[in-house]
Amino acid sequence: MSALLEARDLVVHYRDVPALTGLSVSVAAGERIALLGANGSGKSTLLRVLDALQFPDSGTFHFAGEPITAERLEDRAFSREFRRRVGLVFQNADVQLFNPTVFDEIAFGPLQLQLPKSDIRARVQQTLQQMSLEHLKFRSPHQLSGGEKKRVALASILVLDPEVLLLDEPTAGLDPRSASEMVELLASWRGAGKTVLTATHDLDNLEDIADRVIILQDGRIIADSTPFHILHDVGLLQRARLIAAHRHTHPGGAKQPHPHVHADPLTPPAAPTSDRFGPPADSAATPPIPRTPATPRAKDPD
What's the distance, CA 293 to chain centroid? Predict the structure, then answer.
């Protein structure tokens, strides 16, 4: 299967601090991928490179076989087509929202593509309905709740019908109901043909939103497998700082730490879909651990 997104040996520094350290990844059209990693692992930086908002210090990035560079994007026609086909939703929706009304926010992208006005109105109306935002179309985005802002930010990308969606912590900062609605939307894209990369800390919903999981640590990929294999490799999740041992008081007052992982131990493992999906390193030594309540995680500032 040919790659739609192809990054090779990406190196990115913020001053003297490394963010990506020789990272390579290949993404086929239609894949749903979750990017996991602790704060500062490089998830957000990778998404910005894949959206051509940031260019690596070294390494290459190709989209649909075309090299993506600052010089290439100076071609207005090429840049416009790339922006139509690839969209990024930021972790902080306030960074993305700047128009006076929700309607204007969603219409902004199509206007930049110089689409016919009748087409723009139809697209905006359809997207408002799809994202349950019709009743908010004349409201200022900055007067909305956190969940509503996230939906508007996502709607402003979906209105362009991109082939590739890059989502940076889409449920971060949302209340449980808003987070659940966002996960349901992401899950509904299964089989829809869109290529979706979601940076997240949320292990509970991993199997709903992704068919492939990549774990980043210190700016490089340390694991690439199915959600089932990743969730059942407790040692890997601990090394990547994605789960932690929590102390519990047992009968008699004894306290003992246990690692937590969110997976169903009754479900048989899925067959690997490619050679990259090898067995988890610690699978023989570590049995699956039952579901436990999720621990709140901090936002990823990288």
Answer: 22
The pTM (predicted TM-score) of the whole model is 0.80
pLDDT in tens, 25-60: 999 999 999 999 999 999 999 999 999 999 999 999
Distance separating alpha carbons of residues 52 and 50, to the nearest angstrom: 5
Query: What pairing do the DSSP bridges indicate for beta strands 17-28 and 3-14?
Result: antiparallel
Task: Locate all alpha helices (DSSP H) within 172-243, ordered by sequence.
Answer: 176-187, 206-209, 227-231, 234-239
198: nearest Cα among 27, 45, 34, 51: 34
**How far is it, in rounded angstroms, from Cα 144 to Cα 178?**
13
Q: Which CATH class is domain 3-259?
A: alpha beta
Beta strands in 205-287 (DSSP E): 212-217, 220-225, 245-249, 255-259
Rounded to 10 degrees, what is the CA torsion of 223, 224, 226, 227? Answer: 50
How sure is the predictor about 273, in pLDDT bands with cuts at 50, 70 and 90?
Answer: very low
pLDDT digit string, tens, across residues 227-255: 999 999 999 999 999 988 666 566 666 55
Q: Where are the domains of the chain?
A: 3-259
